[in-house]
Amino acid sequence: MGACQKDFESAVNQVKLLKKDPGNEVKLKLYALYKQATEGPCNTPKPGLFDLINKAKWDAWNALGNLPKETARQNYVDLVSGLRSSSDSSSQVKSEADKKRAGYDTLVITSEDCITKIMLNRPAKKNALTTQMYREIMLALEAASKDDSTITVFTGNGDYYSSGNDLTNFTDIPPGGIEEKAKNSAILLRDFVDCFIDFPKPLVAVVNGPAVGIAVTILGLFDLVYASDRATFHTPFSHLGQTPEGCSSYTFPKIMGPAKAVEMLIFGKKLTAGEAYAQGLVTEVFPDSTFQKEVWTRLKAYSKLSQNAMHISKQIIRNHEKEKLHAINAEESRILQERWLSDECMNAVMDFFSRKAKL
Ligand SMILES: CCCCCC/C=C/C(=O)SCCNC(=O)CCNC(=O)[C@H](O)C(C)(C)COP(=O)(O)OP(=O)(O)OC[C@H]1O[C@@H](n2cnc3c(N)ncnc32)[C@H](O)[C@@H]1OP(=O)(O)O
Asked: How remote is the CA of residue 114 from the centroid of ligand 1, in Å?
C-alpha cells in the first residue's frame, strides 16, 4: 500500500529530529525524493558547472526521471524509517558500549567519545602482565579493531603503567616441564606482538607511570605515546638473562638510532620521560598534575577526525614493513624461548622472588 500524505509529512518532520547526520549521499536522496514527491519530475534548469552543491541536488532529482509522485513519497517514507531504526539501534549499541565491558578479569575496557580505552588493572602488582592478561589484551584488541571507535588507547591503573612480564609466568611449570613452558610462552609472545603489528586503528599509549620490559618495547608499535613526567622507561633484559622482544630490536634503533637503542636494550639504561621524548620513543610529555586532563582533551579532539582517513593512513604507513615486523617478532620469540631455559634467566627470576634483586 502506498504512503499517504500524512505518513509523508510525518517522515518529513522525523528527518529534522534525526540524532545522527545521515551523510551527504542520503541527504541528496532525501532531497530528490522530496522534490519528486511534491513537484514531480525535475523541472528547473541545470545549475552551472561550478555551482557544485545545487548541481549535485539537481542531478539527484533529475536521476529520478518520471518516477510517479506516489512512489517517490513511499520511497521517502521507507528511507526515513530505515534511518530512524538504524539511529535507534546505534544509540542503543553506544549506550551499551559506554558501559564497562564485561568478561575481562585483568582489564577495564570502556568506550566513550569514539575512543576505546584498555586499562591494565592489576595495580597491586604494578600491572605486571600475566598469561591471562596477554590473552585478554589480544581479545580486547580484536574487539576494538571491529567496534565503532576511531582510536584505541592503552593505559595502566594505579601508579605504574606496567612492570612488564609477570615473573610468576616462569614459576608455574606444566607437567611437560620447563621446555614446554618456554615453548608455550614463545607462542603466546609471538601471537601477542602480532596483534599489535596488525592492529588497524590508531593505537595510543597513555603512559601514566613507570613502564618496564615488554610494556616499553611494544611502544615501538604504537602510533602515539603520551607520557606523564613521572613515567620511566626501563628494559633490563641483560639483568634478567633475556633479550629484546616486541620488535624492539628493529623499532628502537629505527626510532632513536643504534647507539641509544643499545644503551636501553643491551645495557638496560632506564630513561626518564624527558629522555624518552628526546629519543623519539615518546610523542609528548605532560606534567603529572595535568596529564589526564590534557591527554584526554587532545584524544577527544583527534577521535573526531575522519575515521576512514586515519585508518587508511595507518595502513599505508604500516604496510611498508608489516612482513618484516612479523619476521622479526618470530625471530625474537624464538631466541627468547632459548633464553628462558638459561640458568641466568632462571636465577634472575628466583632472585626477584627471594627479594635479593630489584630493578
Ligand atoms: C608469555 C611470556 C612473554 C614474556 C615476554 C618477555 C617480557 C619480558 C619483560 O617484560 S622483562 C621485565 C620483567 N619485569 C621485571 O623484571 C620487573 C620486576 N619488578 C620489580 O623490579 C619491582 O616490582 C618494581 C621496580 C616494578 C616495583 O618495585 P616497588 O615499587 O618496590 O614495588 P614491589 O616490588 O613491592 O611490587 C609490588 C607488588 O607487585 C609485584 N610485582 C611487581 N612487578 C612484578 C612483576 N613483573 N612480576 C611479578 N610480580 C611483580 C611485587 O612482587 C609485589 O608483590 P607483593 O606485594 O610482594 O605480593
From this structure: 33
